[in-house]
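Ticket #4471: complex job returned nothing on first submit. Input attached below:
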Amino acid sequence: MTERVRDLDETALLARIFPLLPPGAATLVGPGDDAAVVAAPDGRYVVSTDVLVEDRHFRRRWSTGYDVGVRAAAQNLADIAAMGGRPTALVVGLGLPGDLEVSWVEGFARGLADACTRAGAAVVGGDLSGADTVLVSVAVHGDLGGAAPVLRSGARPGDVVAHAGVRGRSAAGLALLSAGAASPDDGAPSAHGPLAPYVAGFLRPEPPLDGGPAAAAAGATAMLDVSDGLLRDAGRIARASGVVVDLEEATLATSVSDLAPAARALGETASAALAWVLSGGEDHGLLATFPPGATLPAGFTRLGSVRAGDGSPRVTVDGRAPSAGPGWDHFRG
Amino acid sequence: MTERVRDLDETALLARIFPLLPPGAATLVGPGDDAAVVAAPDGRYVVSTDVLVEDRHFRRRWSTGYDVGVRAAAQNLADIAAMGGRPTALVVGLGLPGDLEVSWVEGFARGLADACTRAGAAVVGGDLSGADTVLVSVAVHGDLGGAAPVLRSGARPGDVVAHAGVRGRSAAGLALLSAGAASPDDGAPSAHGPLAPYVAGFLRPEPPLDGGPAAAAAGATAMLDVSDGLLRDAGRIARASGVVVDLEEATLATSVSDLAPAARALGETASAALAWVLSGGEDHGLLATFPPGATLPAGFTRLGSVRAGDGSPRVTVDGRAPSAGPGWDHFRG
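Support reply: We reran it on our side without changes. The output follows.
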């Protein structure tokens, strides 16, 4: 018989989860008391939070518990990297329906643990509640190693715009799943078919976390993680810094090629792939600006340059306004 | 026309919330970037998280947005105090239905801000999502000021058991509201009727936050915040420390008297009041153990003593097992 969350009390459920969550180097007091204690060697810590709600941020028919654990960790860890920090500790609040399989929760914990361990971080505490649908709330913490945090507001005219991580894969994977042109199995860890990179990119994003501290060390003047699409997130740097961020379409050609098999599987052309690259969210790559002449850290690709805002901070592509909003016009026309 | 959450986009809603949240002394980088930066002067921080789900932890027909903001802050802040820490920073995840009034969200932010400001803490970041019911997830952080954290596991035979804060008021208020014997208005900030302390105690608990660092300074050997009732939470110290926690019923007489008007309003006797004192949750007082001879800090009342566990850690009342579980038998018999 399938074991359900309602078959266990909170203590019993926690006893199944805790052993799946290894402690980290910064964990001084881990789960089990009123609060955890975490090391903050440079006298500050970076903190951010993200909430995932079932059927708004993920669907259980597409994402396994493991996938949701990886995704919840990844999108939070990327926020620490985007400040130039290294992730150290997470606390996790879970709302769980009574009929949810316990194996789903265990899978979630394993996904969370795997993504945290790869990043050098650990889950140090959490809270369980009943809920009508699955809710995941993560607060993530990191260490700046003595460096100044890289904000969104430091981009200056003349800076180079660069990006680390995949571009558009998550949006392509979502489009494939939505259209029924791919199944979640196509993105399973063991899958190797032509659609695997897109579906996996949607289910289990892998932000380039090392790129954050590397960009800070290279003198990055502004940085954020791309959660809502290149155009929209570049617009956030533009507004916070009072500049124009100009992207050069030619620099995106390899990304468009990378997405070509997904576009073909959907009967779409290269313009669909370009739309994914410019407007697709949830890849959680790092978009940063660097002083002219800076050596870009490994993993970063130059995408354009920063120009004076002239009182109208905005994003341009090859010097022109992206046609009709943040790019989905490519699907309309 | 009533303004609803769905009438605003996320940026516009955040623009209504942020001005209501003053920065704190530890806030180095506040809301608006990928993450906040918070001071951790002693090279460590304490962190805990709690999730509140509508209709499981609060009802909107009883609790205003302001009430839920105060409650969400209070129960989290108490976890920091229970480690001996002083709260510094919170991040808050919100799930909001589209038809929720914007004024409810603004009230929530004001309640959160008021409770945080009283505690010397500040909201430094957050995340908004849509949801079918209101969800609140808080992660709270604090500073230990160089002291060792007070865990649940340090109680030793011979220690004094003591408590700071109200006992049973939240349970009495919940019972009054559930029975229709009181209305939320009886607990409004301006209310002064005989039932006001109970209803207010349920709607807007006020944990004795200063008691946490004071207890640590006085040498407290174990401590936690009472969220699930004196008996149940004393049992957690007993099990973590491998001891017997013996409560003396006579020490609870003033608390029982304090609840007498609520019991009378419900046609109940003093045994109902004793049940609220022993088993009522969500007062978020601090239960601590101190070495024999220690001077109890202001606000703490001696409730009993710690005895050797003899391989069977447990809670006793006047040396005997509490009759039938954690106390609700008082309602049954």
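The domain at 5-143 of chain B is CATH 3.30.1330.10 (60s Ribosomal Protein L30; Chain: A;). Closing as resolved unless it happens again.
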